[in-house]
Amino acid sequence: MSNPERLSFISGIGRSASGRRLGRTAMDLTLDAALEAIADAGLTRDDIDGVATYPGGDAIMSRGFGGPSAVAVQDALRLDINFLYGSGEGSAQLGSIIEASMAIAAGLAKHVLVFRTVTESTMQGIAGRNPAGGMTRAGGFLSQFGAVSATNWFAQVAQLHMHKYGTTKEQLGQIALTCRTNAGVNPRAVYRDPITMDDYLNARMISTPLCLLDCDVPVDGSTAMVVSHVDYAKDAPKPSGFINAVGTAQYGRPSWDQYADMTSMMAQGVAKQMWSRTDLKPADVDVAELYDGFSIITLAWIEALGFCAQGEGGSFIEGGQRIARTGELPINTHGGQLSEGRLHGYGHVYEAVAQLRGEAGERQIPNAEVIVAANGGGPIAGAMLLTKEFSS
Amino acid sequence: MAIDLDILTVRIAPQDDPETSFFWASGEDGKLRFKHCQDCGYYSHPPTPRCPRCLSANMQPDPVSGKATVLTYTVNIQQWVPGQAPYIIAIVTMEEQDDLRLTTLLAGVDLEDPNIIGMKVEVRFLARDDVWYPTFVPEGSPA
Questions:
Q1: Closest A-chain CA to B126
Q2: Which H/E stretch holds residue A40?
Q3: pLDDT at A136 over 50
Q4: Fewer CB atoms near the end CB (10 Å): N or C, chain A?
Q5: From the candidates A130, A149, A156, A157, which should be mutated to test the interface with B, based on the most B CB atoms within 10 A?
């Protein structure tokens, strides 16, 4: 089996400082991350012939969400490029990486700089959250009924999952606890102090059944990577992070409240398609870096990716041992967005590559050779299977 | 005792959109309306100019019974605006069609009620600034 995505790998990763209210501009952070990724790939900016980002175009879903556009970064680095991409529509945040991979497979580019930048912490601190801001556009017929936050939208998924399958609050809490434990050995995580189940159960409720510790934490930060043609692997300083299979499918209504099975998400189609493009199986996955904008999203990805049957996610993560760093399916080894901070999906991919290279320090999973990175929740989703070694 | 429908403290006006304006004005006569295909009978929401099932352009807003079942819900606790009381957001399925759903507000329901999912509800309109927001109350609630 050979898919076009196998013609590319993530040759370089980089990130800026990240944290609460850094007070720096999105471009400033982006250039730090971009230059680190380019150097990490063993390249200079003269080698970069493509730029891609999510969502790009100075999108303002909410303040500090968009980051600089791809063209702004092209100009700031004075790049001559053959390929440019930025869109909020696509396979969630991963869409930008997948587009870069496709451009490489099509021969449009050899080394694409891909980035995702958020300054939500600083911008919300200055100007407030402004729920009216982008939510009307994103939410369609939701915000007018007081469903102004993604917390409200995902809370309803969680509520139904609990009702239909008997999933408990304690089971959901294992995701928050696991992420916090992992963050404890990640120097870049925003929240590193351990939390107990009591802390979780007593945390301030936001929208039932989701409490504060079920929600990720807005930060400022930029993550960048270079996606290169596999021909470069023989010369690359760190030849790993090979793209084995991607999932981009959108089956069913792309909607926060009209999706047929409200206990799951678009993740279902994405996962099905991704597995159809590889001989690898869920049992081959050594580490799973699963989007955790909210804890319930991670649970839905565990089910969608086939680590357990649908509806059995709660019992699968019961007690937390299975998803711990020492368990059979370590998840969100960097602490996820719940504890490292909301780098908006790119933090998960950065961590996946670091794990495949054996560069994850204290949180390194031994013999991590196959990692799934999944992004998005609700009506947007994308997934990618990354491997340590190249496979044709 | 009449149910206080005025639980919508976050005021976000509907978008100014000719495709959807009928929906927000519909409650003026006490009736909830959805786009309804005159050829195949399919209701759809949010509104679009063609039937998503048979692709007919022969669509018009038609009244429905206003009766629905709660599919799922959440009690919003977070104060998005200062002083706001907790309120119930729900997704309801209209009686007319299994996939005719609406995100809405529930009024007259105990926030701690363990049986909100599956509850039979009916529409009541909250009128504000020439918008009639369809909210829902337990079926048979006093007018």
A1: A145
A2: helix A26-40
A3: no
A4: C
A5: A156
Contact A121, A22 (CB under 8 A): yes
Asked if A152's CB is within 8 angstroms of B91's CB, the reply is: no
Whether the model pTM is above 0.90: yes
Q: Hey, what are A21's tokens?
A: 């209210």
Could you report the predicted ipTM of this complex, rounded to two decimals? 0.96
Name the closest residue on chain A to residue B73, using Cα atoms: A156
**Which residue from A minimizes the CA distance to B11?**
A144
Least confident of A128-142, A161-175, A248-262, B32-46: A128-142
Interface of B with A (CB under 8 A): 7-10, 12-15, 20, 45-46, 71-78, 80, 87, 89-91, 99, 101-105, 117, 131, 133, 135
- Please, which pLDDT band fits residue A138 given cuts at 50, 70 and 90? very low
Q: Maximum CA pair distance of chain A?
A: 56
Contacts for A306-313: CB closer than 8 Å, 24+ residues apart: A306/A271, A306/A275, A306/A282, A307/A282, A310/A263, A310/A264, A311/A161, A311/A164, A311/A165, A311/A167, A311/A263, A312/A165, A313/A161, A313/A165, A313/A167, A313/A171
